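Session log. Operator J.P. requested a structure for one protein chain; no other inputs attached. Running the standard single-chain path with C-alpha cell output.
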Amino acid sequence: MKILLTDAGGMLGRTLARRLAEHEILAADFPEWDVADDDGFLARTLDASPDVVIHCAAMTDLDECETERDRAFLRNEDGARNVALAAKAAGARLFAVSTGFVFSGEPPREPWAWSETDLPRPRTVFGMSMFAGEQMVSMLHPDSVVVRTEWLYGAGGPSFVHELAAAGATDGEPLRVADGLRGNPTSAETVADVVAFLLARPHVAGIVHATCEDQCSPYEWALELKRLLGGRFPRALAPGDALKPCRGATPQPRCAALKKSVLNVLGYRTPTWQKALVDFVKEEFE
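Structure written below.
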C-alpha cells in the first residue's frame, strides 16, 4: 500500500515509518505539506493518490497551546479537517492520532480510566483543539479511525523519558517530578504496532484507544526509569532523595488514563508500560 504520513519526521512518524516499512511511505512534512493549507494539502494528496493516510501532525506543547489558542486550533482542528477532506477525496483510509487529554481529567470510575464511549470534556486548549479535530475527522470521513494515545515517548525523542535521562544534578538538589496525575506511559512502538494491527483490519472504524497497559504518575514513571538507568541517570548520584514528588505546573488532566475497550474486543493486548519501558531503555540507552 501507499501510505501518506503527516509529520513523518516527528517521533511517532519516524517510528511508524520504520514499523510499516514494507509499504510505500510518503513523508508529508511541513513546510512542503502544510495541513493548514486547505487547497494545497488537498491538491498534493490527490496527486499522490495514497491508499492510506496516517495523520500525526499536531501542535502538542501544552503551554504553547494555552498561550497561542488560535494557532492551536488552526493546526489541530483545521489541519484535521483538511486531512480528512483530502483523504476522503483520494479514496484513502484515514488514521488520525489524538490524545487522552480530550477528557476532563476527573476520573469516571475506579480504577481510573476513560473508555472510547466516555464523553470528552476537555479543559485545556490542547485537549479542546484535538477534540475539535476528532469531530472533523469523524464527520468528514466516517470510515476513519481515531487513535487516541498519551504520555508518548520514542526513539530519538523529544519526550519526558529523554528529559529525565539527560537531567543533571544542580547543587545536589532533588529533581522534582509531578505526582497526583494518572496516565499510561506509552512507547511509540506500541502505537505503531496497534496501527499496523488495525491496518490489516479494514472493517475497523471509529475511536480506538492505544496506550500501554497499567497506569502511574509521572513521579512513579521517573522512579522506574531511574531504576532501569541506574548510575547513568545523573540524578541517581545526587545525595539524599534524588527524586521528589511535587504538584505539576503544566495544565494537565488529573486522570488521562485510557481503557482499551476496542482492542480488548479485537483480542489485542498492548504491553504494560513497565515492559515497554524496559525494552525501550535497552534499545535507546544501552
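Operator note: The chain has ten helices and ten strands.
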